[in-house]
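cron nightly-structures :: item 1 of 1
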Amino acid sequence: MSRIRDVLTPEGSSRPLVDTFQRRVSYLRLSVTDRCDLRCSYCMPERMQFLPRKEVLSLEELYKLSLGFIARGVTKIRVTGGEPLVRRDIIELFQALGRKLGEKGHGGLEELTLTTNGTQLPSHAEALAQAGVRRVNVSLDTLDPARFAELSRRDALPQVLEGIAAASAAGLKVKINAVALKGINEDEIPDLIAWAHGQGHDITLIEVMPLGDVEEDRVDHYLPLSQVREILERRWTLTPSAETTGGPARYDRIEETGGLLGMITPLTNNFCSGCNRLRVTATGQLYPCLGGGERVDLRAALRSDNPEANLQQTLNEAMTIKPERHHFDISQRGAAPAQPRHMSVTGG
């Protein structure tokens, strides 16, 4: 049983979150930690400097923050990291948020999910399902053990595959997320798709994003998904699908496998016009745009003398600074990343 206490929704805080471009925000990606038990080379350096624990929001603060968003019309929360399942007692947060699922009318949550690298799923999948999670995204860029170890700097492919199996056994729908990397896994992408669909999992391909300094030049590994699509269409029939999970992916149904293939293309095909998302870091910094530096400090609001009112005021401010689009650029070798913060800090 979760020890996180329910709190009342503040009066007068039901106004929907709508930015200056009239996009309504209904989706929160909530990071609970920047720590991870893998060190994927495109995400972070081997000797990553993690945040001091005292700067990270408590589970109860994360819950109160979530309630503030739910009160303003957020209906979907994705828990992210780092690797969210390495956070101690994280299941308590899922249990508390799970009690908001299915509530009718004001303040209800329609979906609670997470993105994970899968290593901790063997011990957490059943508890997640019991808390109300119905699907998870698992990051998996290769099925080759040696390649996995080189890419993630950890020999953990068996644990990830065990975690995916555990999630399926617990009744969770699994979607595989794979970053397309030139010269690393591009030759394996068709087989990875075939494997995922053969296991009953949908899969989404993602272009590498220029966030944070890593120990290599991302230009070397940038693989436009427009090129990948051309290769896939020589093998399969891809039919555009109107299906959506509320995120930025655009989907196709592959006729020969019967499975769904998503593509997230921040560089080759900007998806910002329909953005309905906000990201909050584990330290309570709200970034209205993944690729922008604009932010507001929710932690300061939560820890103020009047947290409920200050939280709502800060959310209103976030709506005024959410930009129309990101400006990711990966065209020049040696260029600084679009933002100095790593993806593990912002939340995947």
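cron nightly-structures :: done
Confidence is low (pLDDT under 50) at residues 333-339.
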